[in-house]
């Protein structure tokens, strides 16, 4: 047992030295710094985003660099906890669905996981490509994790639709729930990504001329509308 | 600091001492193993009595064997072939103790973990032994086998993947880290209600209303116990439900494996 523990410790040191830079743990910790009340408020926001104030709060750290506040203190800050939990819940709900229809197989877990990850990857690539072509700068936050977080929020709407399907509410109500969750997610994404894509005049990024501005607005609308495609794929379990 | 805390849960610390000194280069110097450490005399009272039949003080056992060679300083007096004989080496410790399996300890920890009305002590899982969890996983797989679902591979996969994810998540979410052995140990001990439901599934099929209710109850019980321990050990503030949710999802996965029979159609084969 002692030998095993020292071997594991040695292995961890090796991994840390060689691969520690690949997955920035401290940056990810920032996105997981959530509290109970944050999660409740954020889920309520995802399902009902129509009346809300959308500015993120900034504070200055010790070395004078401005950075966003962690999710614990700011409801508008994106976190990675909710998307991760929503993804896993979606996979388990899909397995439950198939079990209730008497066609359960443990492979379904793997297949659903691959499908969900493929959808997230596709959305992420689309957004990042758009940012690259439209020359949208990074800004104060880590862009990759933020975009992944925003992509993961659509699973909450998909879960709501799946629950409505599990309760056997009938076709019209099911499609109504699906459309409502699509609109809510699209609106949420629109307002959240607006700050990344269309920076305010007081931000540190370069100012945007009107032609670029209209192109960016079109890009934003495209991102929001393609969500229905992704959600449609995800809902078919 | 917690190594001084030698109540029932302090066993592994003295056991690590045991092995650390046992691996020291043997120059024939007698290791005064049991004499100066009163720690060694009080741990494993149950195991000693069942294995050796000696319920007396541990010191007497130490002096009964030849003092220089007892207690980890195993010097083979014959050649290497005595390892395959039935004589054994002088002063070889009993097998269960050498493997670190202590049944009374496992039983005590399981009972302490499963009682939903007790206060969670922060040091309850300080000695992370994997023997209990391994036993529980094997029992779970065996019960599922008896009820017609031979899914050892999937249980292993879900267990490994789930433990790794919870380890990663807990380390990301808390200020104070946790090591992987402890995570697997806690998750394994809290699996016991699910093993109970698996035992029930041998007799009664769980794919019905009562099965769903029983499985949900066992998920809630397992999750309540595990999240309580994690929140106490990691000293997290205001995040118990956030810890409970992924743990609940993991146990929900196990419940899925135990409730649903593999469908006739499978995942793509023709009906």
From TrEMBL, chain A:
<dbReference type="GO" id="GO:0030134">
    <property type="term" value="C:COPII-coated ER to Golgi transport vesicle"/>
</dbReference>
<keyword id="KW-0653">Protein transport</keyword>
<dbReference type="InterPro" id="IPR005578">
    <property type="entry name" value="Yif1_fam"/>
</dbReference>
<feature type="transmembrane region" description="Helical">
    <location>
        <begin position="147"/>
        <end position="167"/>
    </location>
</feature>
<keyword id="KW-0812">Transmembrane</keyword>
<dbReference type="GO" id="GO:0015031">
    <property type="term" value="P:protein transport"/>
</dbReference>
<dbReference type="GO" id="GO:0000139">
    <property type="term" value="C:Golgi membrane"/>
</dbReference>
<dbReference type="GO" id="GO:0005793">
    <property type="term" value="C:endoplasmic reticulum-Golgi intermediate compartment"/>
</dbReference>
<dbReference type="Pfam" id="PF03878">
    <property type="entry name" value="YIF1"/>
</dbReference>
<keyword id="KW-0813">Transport</keyword>
<comment type="function">
    <text>Has a role in transport between endoplasmic reticulum and Golgi.</text>
</comment>
<keyword id="KW-0256">Endoplasmic reticulum</keyword>
<keyword id="KW-1133">Transmembrane helix</keyword>
<dbReference type="GO" id="GO:0005789">
    <property type="term" value="C:endoplasmic reticulum membrane"/>
</dbReference>
<dbReference type="GO" id="GO:0006888">
    <property type="term" value="P:endoplasmic reticulum to Golgi vesicle-mediated transport"/>
</dbReference>
<keyword id="KW-0333">Golgi apparatus</keyword>
<feature type="transmembrane region" description="Helical">
    <location>
        <begin position="112"/>
        <end position="135"/>
    </location>
</feature>
<comment type="similarity">
    <text>Belongs to the YIF1 family.</text>
</comment>
<feature type="transmembrane region" description="Helical">
    <location>
        <begin position="173"/>
        <end position="190"/>
    </location>
</feature>
<protein>
    <recommendedName>
        <fullName>Protein YIF1</fullName>
    </recommendedName>
</protein>
<feature type="transmembrane region" description="Helical">
    <location>
        <begin position="80"/>
        <end position="100"/>
    </location>
</feature>
<feature type="transmembrane region" description="Helical">
    <location>
        <begin position="217"/>
        <end position="235"/>
    </location>
</feature>
UniProtKB/TrEMBL annotation, chain B:
<dbReference type="InterPro" id="IPR045231">
    <property type="entry name" value="Yip1/4-like"/>
</dbReference>
<keyword id="KW-0812">Transmembrane</keyword>
<feature type="domain" description="Yip1">
    <location>
        <begin position="113"/>
        <end position="256"/>
    </location>
</feature>
<dbReference type="GO" id="GO:0000139">
    <property type="term" value="C:Golgi membrane"/>
</dbReference>
<dbReference type="GO" id="GO:0005802">
    <property type="term" value="C:trans-Golgi network"/>
</dbReference>
<feature type="transmembrane region" description="Helical">
    <location>
        <begin position="210"/>
        <end position="234"/>
    </location>
</feature>
<keyword id="KW-1133">Transmembrane helix</keyword>
<feature type="transmembrane region" description="Helical">
    <location>
        <begin position="241"/>
        <end position="264"/>
    </location>
</feature>
<feature type="transmembrane region" description="Helical">
    <location>
        <begin position="184"/>
        <end position="204"/>
    </location>
</feature>
<feature type="transmembrane region" description="Helical">
    <location>
        <begin position="152"/>
        <end position="172"/>
    </location>
</feature>
<dbReference type="Pfam" id="PF04893">
    <property type="entry name" value="Yip1"/>
</dbReference>
<comment type="similarity">
    <text>Belongs to the YIP1 family.</text>
</comment>
<dbReference type="GO" id="GO:0006888">
    <property type="term" value="P:endoplasmic reticulum to Golgi vesicle-mediated transport"/>
</dbReference>
<dbReference type="InterPro" id="IPR006977">
    <property type="entry name" value="Yip1_dom"/>
</dbReference>
<dbReference type="GO" id="GO:0048280">
    <property type="term" value="P:vesicle fusion with Golgi apparatus"/>
</dbReference>
<feature type="transmembrane region" description="Helical">
    <location>
        <begin position="128"/>
        <end position="146"/>
    </location>
</feature>
<protein>
    <recommendedName>
        <fullName>Protein YIP</fullName>
    </recommendedName>
</protein>
<keyword id="KW-0472">Membrane</keyword>
